[in-house]
Design a protein that fits this description.
Radius of gyration: 20 Å
Helix content: 40-55%
Structural class: mainly alpha
Number of strands: 0
Strand content: under 5%
Shape: globular
Length: about 210
């Protein structure tokens, strides 16, 4: 019998040998019971004045790279990781994440994802200054191709798991992080010193976009 071997040349080696599984072959009921069994530990931790919780995240590298374009493959890889994670002692269960890059906010301003090979999607700054970004009128994120894809992915994950598996609804970046994708980085951080009020106005607008989504 051939043993599974980690690819130690990979910067994210722990998931390199896991293969995707179908949603039909994943026991969502069993995983829900497993999660429920850990809830009491978490409750005790939050109620205590000190203590430690152990969380071992099973992160499949392909899910957070080019494979995020394929929601069926992304789910299959993540379910494989969740199934494997149950064999290791921990206090916090792993969860699903319909991850689709971190350039969500720039797409509201007209940016498009750039796919380089099988890497995670990227965006390029659209504006030279904070003032230019404030003058632009973003559309609601759910009206962008990226926003629609994320919402469809969330629905797909919920449908295939019956809503029984814990899930984070996406990798929502902070307004500060999102703004750094919109504007030339050097100009953006200089604006914190030169015109912080204008920066705050932009961050507030981005916050409204994210919370609305």
């Amino acid at each position: 019998m051939k043993e599974n071997v980690f690819d130690t040349s990979s910067p994210d080696a722990q998931g390199t040998w896991l293969k995707p599984i179908s949603a039909d072959s994943f026991d969502a009921e069993a995983y829900a019971e497993y999660c429920a069994g850990l809830e009491e530990r978490c409750r005790r931790f939050w109620a205590a004045s000190d203590g430690t919780l152990v969380y071992r995240r099973f992160r499949i590298p392909q899910v957070y790279a080019g494979k995020c374009r394929d929601m069926e493959l992304s789910l299959g890889l993540q379910l494989s990781a969740l199934k494997q994670s149950m064999e290791f002692a921990m206090d916090i269960p792993n969860f699903l994440e319909p991850w689709y890059g971190i350039g969500m906010v720039p797409t509201a301003y007209g940016a498009e994802y750039i796919w380089n090979g099988d890497l995670a999607p990227a965006t390029v700054p659209l504006f030279s200054t904070v003032e230019e970004a404030l003058d632009a009128q973003p559309v609601p994120l759910e009206e962008t191709p990226t926003g629609r894809h994320i919402l469809n992915m969330v629905e797909y994950f919920l449908e295939k798991t019956g809503g029984k598996v814990p899930m984070s609804f996406s990798d929502v970046q902070s307004p500060l992080n999102s703004a750094s994708y919109l504007i030339d980085t050097s100009e953006f951080f200089m604006a914190f010193l030169e015109d912080p009020e204008t920066v705050m106005k932009l961050l507030e607008r981005i916050t409204d976009l994210i919370t609305g989504f």
